[in-house]
Write the structure tokens for this entry.
Amino acid sequence: MCDTNTDDLKNIGEFGLIENIKSWLDSKDSNIDANVVGIGDDAAVINKISDKILTSIDTLVEGTHFTRDITNFHELGWKSLAVNISDIAAMGGIPKYALISFACPEGTKIENLKQFYFGFQELAKLAKVRLIGGDTVKTSEKIVVSVSIIGETINGNYFLRSGAKAGDFVCVTGTFGDAAFGLKQLLLDKLVKNYFTDRFNKPMPRFLEAKILGEKNLANAMIDVSDGLVFSLYEIAEKSNLGILIEKNKIPISQQLQKILKNLDYALYGGEDYELIFTVSEKNINEVVNSLKNVNIIGNMTDVFAGVRMKSENDKTENLVKKGYSAF
Amino acid sequence: MCDTNTDDLKNIGEFGLIENIKSWLDSKDSNIDANVVGIGDDAAVINKISDKILTSIDTLVEGTHFTRDITNFHELGWKSLAVNISDIAAMGGIPKYALISFACPEGTKIENLKQFYFGFQELAKLAKVRLIGGDTVKTSEKIVVSVSIIGETINGNYFLRSGAKAGDFVCVTGTFGDAAFGLKQLLLDKLVKNYFTDRFNKPMPRFLEAKILGEKNLANAMIDVSDGLVFSLYEIAEKSNLGILIEKNKIPISQQLQKILKNLDYALYGGEDYELIFTVSEKNINEVVNSLKNVNIIGNMTDVFAGVRMKSENDKTENLVKKGYSAF
């Protein structure tokens, strides 16, 4: 990229940037909320939210969670919001408001910042999330994006990792392994763009499914899957002090991935799918299956904590190892 | 510092760290709040807060806002919360809950992280702020700390930068220039520790004063001073579309700084004091002066926007330049 002094952050400064951000958002923002004092003061003011508030912060660091050659600014904007929406979804809540802290070198191009905010806003509109504040600060080299999010519960319902009951069905949304396989492809060829790379760079957090679960209070425990399916299953098992037995042939894998891979490694241990795992009592399972598209039952909570185990087609049971996923 | 593999972040991992953080906070935390689901799930759950919520995010970047040789981890923890509490104070609200995103190299010593959280918690206890979540992520080199904060309004009152009225008194808390002078001393000798360096490394945000102003709805506009007195005065003037005339001999300067400096440069243009500037109607000014210790009237809002001007003892008036403050 050519470097001119007329279009980078150093040239317009933080306060010039705030005006730019406002204009980028206005032109894209169809969900203006008169009850909010947003960007431009010391703090944002939010009126009228449910009695129980959900809040979370998540950070994407260049070199740790993304690199600029395989994730562009638009995708980074989308993803930085997606991982936060996913946290609120994992509680069964509705995401409402977000703040961005964007730390970047002062040579960062305004066009790139614009793409970042457009990517952020693209998902924000879909999920009805309003950007209400934040700051932009200077780093020497690496980009660090922190997003904090505020959501609300529906009828006061929320689901912790610790809420699973023995006998609960273990359900999941979507399919597993696609994002990690997408990253693998990008690491081999940074120009490739397909279903898998989109799942890595523009994951769709499950806010619609979470809303149904929260509204009807259908889950006992829930978590989103950023560190891999098995890792997240362990989180529910450990926090609930129970075991989990899943069935190998029930693990949902996309047709695209099935065509390519013979083994389950990506599905079990690949991260960044941002699907939901949730546990459901017998009395609610029919309602879950009927209300939610694209949900699969993959196993059950067992009554004693014995880690996470997997039953094969031939009824053999193996213990799965808890290991986290690291992108880079 | 000697480097062993038994006591750094790489060795215990993110999840080991979460357990450590919980133990550090428990041992220091006297304000446990049963209405909160805090650290350890996908998002925090907050019950019962006022109808109007205040929220903000602020980030400290190593090399931009601090360096490790002049700000230790304890001070960094304090300051990362202080700058956020100051944002809520600047709205006239009460800070309640905080989330930390701590990005650091994986070789970071656990003892240093502990000092960071102890510093954070020291101020959190004073200000009755509860740490309810966050994440810890890996950077290649530089530390980046983002804190998001949630506060509440009192009786629905809050003060924007844009709320000043012509004729309002312009009031300030505390004294100006000490923090910037402290930084200057630290840049000359990183081992020096005194009143000035403490004001730079452990600023005390004005949450007590803000609470009184919010409770009694005494201010029309308010801002905190991170970028310097004149810069923040300009923010109020511009956003309120009015002018400000201050009196040179009314600008509060600490006795310590008066002894050393002949001119006003540090007081006018030094940043990071985290004092409050607020404007007050004539009908409220007596109540302000009687209710708040350590407050000074430094001037008035004028009815036409003509920037920020300063009147000297000899009745000469000069226009002040809007320029921001940059630590490094």
